[in-house]
Amino acid sequence: METQRQGQRLYWETMGERQAPPLLMIRGLARTARHWGPVLELLARRFFVVVFDNRGVGRSGVPRLPFTTRDMAADAVAVLDAAGVARAQIFGMSLGGMIAQQLALRYPRRVERLVLGCTRAGPGPGTISPSTVLGLLAAMRAGGVEGLRRSHRLVVSDAFAQRHPEVLQRWEQLARDEPPSPRGVLLQLAAAARHDARRQLPRLAVPTLCVTGTVDRLIHPRASEELAALIPQARLARLGGAGHDFSTEQPEATAALLERFLLG
Question: Residues 216, 220, 224, 245: which is the catalytic one?
Answer without folding.
Answer: 216
